[in-house]
Amino acid sequence: MKQPLDPATARRRFATVTFLFWLPVGLYLPAQVLLLTERGLSLAAVAGLYAVYSVTVAVMELPTGGLSDVVGRRAVLAAAGLLNVCALTALALGTTLWALAAAMLLMGAGRALSSGPAEAWYVDTVQAHSGTDAELRTGLARGGTACAAALAAGTLAGGVLPLLLGTGSGAGTRLARATDGLVVPLSVPGLLAAAVSALYVVHVLSALPEPPRPAATLRSVLGGVPATVADGTRLAVREPLLRRVLLTAAAAGAALATVELLTPGRAAVLTGAPESGAVLFAALACAGFLCTAAGSHGAPLVARWTGGSERAALASLAVSGSGLLLLGVTAAWNGTAAAVLAACAYGLVYLGLGAAGPNENDLLHRRVDGSVRATALSVQSLALQSAGALAGLVAGTLPAGPLPWLVGAVALLAGAALWAGRTSPVPAATP
Fold first, then answer.
1. What is the spatial distance between Cα 368 and Cα 361, in angstroms, rounded to a whole number?
2. 1-216 sits in which CATH class?
3. pLDDT tens track for 13-67
4. What is the CATH number of domain 225-421?
5. Region(s) of the chain under CATH 1.20.1250.20
6. Which chain regions cross the lipid bilayer (predicted)?
7. Contact at 8 Å (CB) between 346 and 292?
8. Which of 84, 150, 215, 358 could bridge to 141 as Cys pair (CB 3.0-4.6 Å)?
9. Cα dihedral: 270, 272, 276, 279 (round 10)
10. String of DSSP letters for 273-327
């Protein structure tokens, strides 16, 4: 039997596979809505397509986490990559509503399959090499940094590439004519994203070795997945420390949904026009990803400064909540000073969330074992998404001004309060 990878190698491979998964997301996001409307879809139809994606992720989140715990991490990650290749290709080339809806369904399934297995693989590998007391925080931080860096790089490339093709000596027109209109400048980022997803599959299959598992049969999968989902969910809900991690994830989801919903309109107000507001929002989104990368990279340092993961989560969430509170305050007036303060506050939100994530997950992985690890991560992801959807609905119904921003700020500060005074030793994982 081969020896498990050493922690340094596992960290590098985990960061690489994380970067390759999220780079396609950054590539297709900036142009996707514009491409769909150029294909003739109304905004209502576009919203419906994204609802297909969201519902698919929510429905499949827990079963796919359980599937990873039963059949292994690598197979599930490779399946997620293959689904994304198909989905991104269909989104880039599709011209009918039904084809695009099928693409969103595939993308939602790929997102659900990918939620947790890579991180679970990293923790399993490190603990197999160095024991259950192995240091995890650095690798988790590198994964968060890789995710944010990929989104930042992808967003810039995905936003600039159609512009270059559309204005480059008729290159976009020749491209559309050569492909009978299927490939236009706005569809190129999606096709590039599909190619990166294919590279992701190759990397997963070649660089993520797993210890041998019992051969999975249809009967073992059908019986094992529901039992694993039930065990993981029960542990996450009943264990006090894990319950705090889940509630913190919900607070982060509420904050992110609030910021993503309200920032585009605020940017348009500050610049005076929707078009210039869209440019400002794109720049802010890229800056937010970079701040998340910086916060995640510094998460181990924050833990050392504060004396542990629990205090680091408290400090990081307090910084993020303060930034969101400042965003709400600056929404009361316009001008250069308000814009500068709002930009700084925006950065604080993402910097704090980036630093909080690895420390929270360090606590989570020390409390669960490999049999339900991916399931616990799926429960965490579901908490974030569900709270985000609810917060978005609440913030969207409130009158314009500072009040809607308080939805996310209050949630984040409440999440920080969960960790106040919590410095007890983390109990060992219970099989």
1. 11
2. mainly alpha
3. 999 999 999 999 989 887 787 788 888 888 678 878 888 888 888 888 878 777 8
4. 1.20.1250.20
5. 1-216, 225-421
6. 12-29, 41-60, 80-106, 146-166, 186-208, 279-302, 314-333, 339-356, 377-397, 403-421
7. no
8. 358
9. 10
10. SHHHHHHHHHHHHHHHHHHHHHHHHTHHHHHHHHTSHHHHHHHHHHHHHHHHHHH
